[in-house]
Design brief:
The complex is a heterotrimer of chains A (342), B (280) and C (301). In chain A, 39% of the residues lie in helices and 17% in strands. Chain A has 342 residues and is an alpha/beta fold. Chain A folds into 2 domains: 160 residues, 3-Layer(aba) Sandwich (D-Maltodextrin-Binding Protein, domain 2), CATH 3.40.190.10; 156 residues, 3-Layer(aba) Sandwich (D-Maltodextrin-Binding Protein, domain 2), CATH 3.40.190. Chain B has 280 residues and is mainly alpha-helical. In chain B, helix 3 packs parallel to helix 6, helix 3 packs across helix 10 and helix 7 packs antiparallel against helix 8. Chain B is globular and about 70 Å long. The mean pLDDT of chain B is 80. In chain B, strands 1-2 form a two-stranded antiparallel ribbon. Chain C has a single domain, classed as MetI-like (MetI-like fold). Chain C is 72% helix and 5% strand. Classes of the chains: A alpha/beta (342), B mainly alpha (280), C mainly alpha (301). Chains in contact: A-B, A-C, B-C.
């Protein structure tokens, strides 16, 4: 019995000690399919740090997870309008990005941005646009207007897919209806609500992750999409076309930040620095098909990427970046979305 | 009792079913099992699909199994699952064993029903409620041990699963052997260690296996409670499903399936053996 | 060595039960109490709660502040709750219809084969629910296992559109919990004395009457147990509605999870959970009462 007990205690001790984090690790929490394995492999080889990647599907999920007290993430990747929220809630920490050695490679127009004026918190990841995509074999439209998305024609026949979280859907609605972002006017939000509720009749699913699969299988004929992610879908052979409507599209900028509860801050900074090297950033951009904020990456793009329509929008395209909404505006957005989702 | 059920007899050349038999029962049962096993067969079948899109059959190939094997994220998830399941099984089985000893042998004491209710509580509460409550709890007291949180949650809900077979075994065990041991001047402890425990062991092993499978399969609680780097296999499969439907999911699922079936078959064989061994 | 065990029987009982009380008490009971408390607090707009008391979460179940901040009746969540009950009842009924004949059939088999059938019934249940539900996506999906041959042979020209519907969720739920219906019914039927059937037949009962007036009443405890074992998990189900419902057809379980994932309204999630828990407790109380009544009746018979 004594032997049993000591063996049991020994096993437990070994297992628990295995849980203690070793040094030389990095935990990345990023959007689904947003972290190319070859990029991670390169970083691991060059730095000797072991990297793990977990994924989420939206800014809202990221915020919810961090708010619930999830720890252990060293790098998370929020969009620009969520960075101030994370700062205000004390969820991310200053790491002095402007002092990192590769910071000089950052493009001027993206340095010291509105959401991080002293570049203390965030390092660049990718920026891109949000619009909608369609299956060109099943749809005769050309995506010339957001009307095709918000007031779908009968051709769609109930095969429309919309993002599962409100943020960008509402922003697109704002653009289409000409309502300013972060409106605190209830009447204006009611307009958006009515439109979304009517749109729901044509929706087959609210999905922020498998849009390309839905388009490829024909389960959906049109879906909300992001520029680069749509390109990835197209590259698997499916006839997916990313639309550039005349009213404009939503622009966003994702950056890497370090949560306050991070355990490997130094390694996180090393990774941020690594990404500001044009060679490495080009690997990411080539893989993802969005835009990047580092000088000199274009030289490393593959041929296919250079001509991809998803990163070469028409020159007259209107791109709108959403700011962080006030709590009052945010609560209106939540009310609208709750109504739509019921 | 089964000898009371007669075989169908033939009278006037027409097959007449005896009392209690109904036409179509066997076909219904066959249809039932087809329904039950169809998804499993589909899962295994499509894991050999050479095409990337799960639903369009593109030929036979084991590429996805190779891909799954080499996927380090999967390996990490499996490792996490095994650690959690092992530790949770050890602790929950130990706790359940002593609990069962008290509840099955202690007679009718005050608080017996309450204790029984408490131990089976995790079974009755819907999993989502448990998951959410534990998340709130850990967040409120600021406990953040990563995988440790998951292990604690698993120990908690595995207890009733380990408890049931052990208690069943205890109730089926008659005490003559133990009484004989005491009559032969063995101390209480010696009786417990050399007579009771070995007799009980099949029940304990059955309980442990059950707890292990339950822990390996758990998804919703681990999803809500887990922190960074605590992805277990079911949680990883979920993220794979959300990322896109490739046959890699099928390959991983098939392997998980076969592992579960192996354990359950072992459990079944073991319980058959104990049935026959106590029936002399 | 047994000297460190307490001498009194009560002492030993306490020792044996203490770990269970400790673990389940701290990691289940207390969390549920905290969850109950949280449901009476105000939500923090960015997740978590504010230490301010409020009934807002419970009011939200049936009412809402519309865009003009007026309190109006809101059937939306009640619809979701209603749908959850509807689908759970439906799944329970389907399980009963499917499962009862099978349990009966197994009982008719010779003893040594019965255990094998039971083993076959339980295997799918012990395998991962997530992957079994995922398989249904492949079966019901566009161009999937059901549609592909039908499309190929021209029986249908377009998709049957089975995915992302209430029906898909119902199938998923039924499938998930079918064994839980079969096993208790079988356990009840196994104890059935088949000579009663012969007696009934001798008394000129026909096949139908034998089933409805003899068999079913005698295995009622099993049927009720099976229904409860299916109904309760269905109410709180999360996987089937999520994977097969496409985020459009929310059920109680997925609605609760949504509050903690994207919606960031913990008190509301807590309130819904308390609602779910109350239904479970009420169901169990009814069950316990019915069991006691039956025992009393049988005892006095």
């Amino acid at each position: 019995m004594k032997r049993l007990f000591t063996t049991f205690a020994a096993i437990t001790a070994v297992l628990i000690s295995g849980l203690a984090q070793a040094s030389g690790e990095l935990f990345i929490y990023n959007w689904t399919e947003y972290t190319p394995p070859e990029l991670i492999a390169k970083f691991e080889k060059e730095s000797g740090i072991k990297v793990s990647v977990d994924t989420y599907d939206s800014n809202e999920t990221l915020l919810a997870k961090l708010q619930a007290g999830a720890t252990g993430y060293d790098i998370v990747v929020p969009s620009q309008n969520f960075v101030p929220i994370l700062i205000n809630e004390g969820l991310i920490q200053k790491v002095g990005v402007h002092a990192l050695s590769n910071f000089k490679n950052m493009e001027d127009r993206w340095s010291f941005p509105e959401w991080d004026p002293e570049q203390e918190y965030s390092g660049p990841w990718q920026w891109g646009t949000t619009s909608f995509s369609y299956n060109s074999e099943l749809y005769s439209g050309t995506g010339a207007s957001l009307k095709e998305f918000f007031e779908p024609s009968d051709e769609l026949n109930g095969r429309l897919s919309v993002f599962q979280t409100p943020d960008e859907v509402i922003s697109l609605a704002n653009i289409y209806l000409g309502i300013p972002f972060c409106s605190e006017d209830a009447k204006q939000m009611k307009q958006i609500q009515d439109m979304l509720v009517t749109q729901k009749e044509s929706v087959v699913a609210y999905n922020s992750e498998t849009m390309s699969d839905l388009l490829a299988s024909g389960e959906a004929i049109m879906t909300n999409h992001w520029s680069g992610y749509s390109r990835l879908g197209r590259l698997t052979g499916a006839p997916i076309v990313y639309a550039y409507p005349k009213e404009g599209v939503v622009g966003w900028y994702d950056s890497m930040v370090v949560p306050t509860s991070a355990k490997n801050v130094e390694n996180a900074k090393k990774f941020m620095n690594f990404m500001m090297d044009p060679v490495n950033m080009a690997i990411l951009t080539d893989n993802q098909g969005y835009g990047d904020a580092v000088k000199g990456t274009a030289a490393y793009y593959s041929e296919e990427l250079k001509s991809a329509p998803e990163i070469n929008p028409p020159s007259d395209l209107k791109v709108f970046f959403a700011p962080t909404c006030s709590p009052k505006a945010q609560s209106l957005i939540d009310k609208v979305w709750t109504k739509v989702m019921q | 009792m089964s000898d009371q059920i007669q075989k169908p007899s033939t009278r006037k050349g027409k097959k007449v079913l005896p009392v209690g038999h109904y036409r179509g029962l066997s076909s219904w049962t066959i249809a039932f099992f087809v329904f039950l096993y169809l998804p499993i067969i589909v899962l295994i079948f499509y894991s050999f699909n050479a095409n990337r899109m799960v639903m369009n059959w593109g030929g036979f190939g084991i590429d996805w199994y190779l891909k799954a094997f080499n996927n380090s994220d999967i390996q990490k998830a499996v490792w996490n699952s095994l650690i959690v399941a092992t530790v949770a099984t050890v602790f929950s089985t130990a706790i359940a064993t002593i609990g069962a000893l008290v509840l099955a042998r202690g007679g009718n004491f005050r608080g017996k029903t309450v204790s029984l209710g408490l131990i089976t509580l995790p079974l009755m509460v819907p999993e989502i409620v448990t998951a959410v409550a534990v998340l709130i709890f850990f967040s409120a007291i600021g406990m953040n041990l990563g995988l440790g949180n998951v292990i604690i949650a698993h120990i908690t809900f595995c207890i009733p699963f380990a408890f049931m077979p052990i208690r069943a075994r205890l109730e089926g065990m008659d005490t003559t052997l133990e009484q004989a041991s005491r009559d032969l001047y063995a101390s209480e402890w010696e009786t417990f260690r050399f007579v009771t425990m070995p007799l009980l062991m099949p029940g304990i092993v059955a309980g442990a296996m059950l707890a292990f499978v339950i822990s390996m399969d758990d998804f919703i609680i681990t999803l809500m409670v887990g922190g960074a780097g605590s992805t277990t296999l079911p949680v990883y499969i979920y993220s794979m499903i959300r990322r896109g439907l490739t046959p890699e999911i099928n390959a991983v699922s098939t392997m998980l399936l076969l592992a579960s079936i192996a354990i359950i078959t072992a459990y079944w064989i073991l319980s058959k053996k104990t049935q026959t061994s106590t029936e002399h | 060595m047994s000297d460190w065990l307490p001498k009194s029987a009560a002492g030993r009982r306490w020792l044996g039960l203490a770990p269970s009380y400790f673990v389940i008490g701290i990691f289940m009971l207390i969390p549920m109490v905290i969850m109950g408390v949280f449901s009476f607090l105000e939500p923090n707009p960015y997740g978590g709660v504010k230490p301010v008391g409020s009934l807002a979460a419970y009011i939200k179940i049936a009412f809402e502040y519309d865009l003009e901040d007026k309190l109006v009746f809101n059937p939306g969540y009640l619809n979701i709750i209603f749908r959850s009950f509807q689908l759970s009842f439906g799944a329970t009924l389907l399980c009963l219809i499917f499962g009862f004949p099978v349990a009966y059939y197994i009982t008719l088999q010779p003893e040594n084969r019965r255990n094998f059938y039971i083993y076959l019934v339980t295997i799918p249940f012990w395998t991962n629910l997530l992957i079994r539900t995922f398989a249904w996506i492949i079966i019901l999906g566009r161009g999937g296992v059901i549609e592909a041959p039908l499309l190929a042979t021209g029986i249908i020209d377009d998709s049957l559109r089975m995915m992302y519907t209430d029906g898909a969720i119902a199938i998923g739920l039924t499938y998930s919990y079918l064994p839980l219906m079969v096993l208790p019914i079988y356990a009840s039927l196994e104890k059935l004395d088949f000579r009663l059937l012969d007696a009934a037949s001798d008394l000129y009962a026909n096949r139908f009457e034998i089933m409805t007036k003899v068999v079913i009443p005698l295995c009622k405890p099993g049927i009720i147990a099976g229904c409860i074992l299916v109904f309760i998990p269905c109410l709180g189900a999360f996987i089937a509605p999520n994977l097969l419902g496409g985020g459009k057809k929310l059920m109680l379980g997925s609605l609760v999870q949504f509050q903690f994932a994207s919606a960031r309204n913990w008190p509301f999630g807590g309130a819904l959970s308390m609602l779910l828990l109350s239904v479970v407790i009420i169901t169990l109380i009814f069950y316990a009462r019915a069991a006691k009544n039956r025992a009393a009746m049988e005892g006095s018979a």
